Amino acid sequence: MTAVRKIIHVDMDAFYASVEQRDEPKYRGKPIVVGGSPNKRGAVAAASYEARRYGIHSAMPSRTAHQKCPHLIFVKPRFEVYRRISLQIRNIFYRYTDWVEPLALDEAYLDVTENKFDIPSATWIAQTIKQEIYEETGLTASAGVSINKFLAKVASGMDKPNGLFIIPPEDAAAFVEQLPIEQFYGVGQVTAAKMHKLGIQTGADLKQWSLSDLVRHFGKVGQYYYKIARAEDDRPLQPNRIRKSIGAENSYDPDLSNRSEIETALEEVAGTLLRRLDSQRAVGRTLTLKVKYADYQQVTRSRTLVTPIGNRPGTDACSPAGSLILDVAHELLETTDVEHKAVRLLGLTISNLAGEAQEHYIQLCLNV
Q1: Which of 148, 181, 244, 351 could be a cystine partner for 233, CB 3.0 to 4.6 Å?
Q2: What's the burial of 117, exposed, middle or buried (CB within 10 Å: 0-12/13-18/19+)?
């Protein structure tokens, strides 16, 4: 008989906003958002719980957020700080298990079926992890505990903030049956609306559909819907997930309309990207340029090279921003309409990544 899995999903509460409120007393108890702009440009990256009471959420346009709460405080993101705290939290996870699958800086799955202390209770481990996170960072987390990734993920959102929700094996099927379809992880707004039109309001409704009918209406993902309607999810954790890309981007207020300003901005983005590649000890072969114009039209341009791109082989290490990245980025920029349109966002992404395999190569700077 296969042992019942014990999966925990840990989700930090309003992570970016909570870090800012922790570090800046004047933000505490106030509606704040990280990202966006008080001039109503950009979008919200994270919202404090005080801001959420006004209906503000991540990815909401700044203009809309400001309309909902005129006294909203906009805070510039500090991603290096968030990354450092995220690593601190991840180290807490590793005290209990090596089976950790990070989903983002602020959330992760843990498989504690077998753990480093042979603790039989996943609930006890989740409680202890939450307490250690608070003691060591001053931040709260919510956690869900169940028999698979789908249920643990749903559970972590049931009792926020600073909550702990358990779905034991014997209650799993009944829990899913009563769950509104909008609360299913993996079912977005568009899919939920489509399901409503088909008469699917809850897990019980979804469970009535055959596998063939779900695949016919929803394609291959119908197989996933069929399983989760029955509280089944056999996806394993991926503790060594391969990162597919590394990127950097900046938005600009006011828009950039001067070519020299655009090129300077592009060099700054390239410099940030190069530092991130270096910190990850990664190189890649495909560089993608993203340009968003003042009219919100967005274009991307890509080029794949034989020589790896990054602060490793193939990049001029003597150049602060990396000559190869900049050379290719400028060539891609020439294929856009920046000569005729103002720019509000520039981004660069490296994909087709390789890790540390080529780290033994060293490029020397020759002074001649």
Answers
A1: 148
A2: exposed
Residue position matching structure tokens 């003597």: 318
Can you name the CATH fold of 172-228? Answer: DNA polymerase; domain 1 (1.10.150)
> pTM for this one?
0.70
Residue 295, both tokens? 């009219």
Q: Which residues of 318-334 are buried (b: 16+ CB within 10 A; e: fewer)?
A: ebebbebbbebbeebbe
Q: What is the pLDDT of residues 221-249, one digit of tens each?
A: 999 999 999 999 999 998 866 667 888 88
Tell me the fold of 15-79. Answer: MutS, DNA mismatch repair protein, domain I (3.40.1170)
| Tokens 């190069």 -> residue | 274
| Residue pLDDT, tens place only, 142-197 | 999 999 999 999 999 999 999 999 999 999 999 999 999 999 998 988 899 999 99
Task: Give one DSSP letter per residue of 274-316, joined into a string.
Answer: HHHHHHHT-EEEEEEEEEEETTS-EEEEEEEEEEEESSSTTS-
- Closest CA relative to residue 277, chosen from 228, 342, 350: 350
Determine the Cα–Cα distance for residues 197 and 183; give it in Å rounded to an integer. Answer: 17
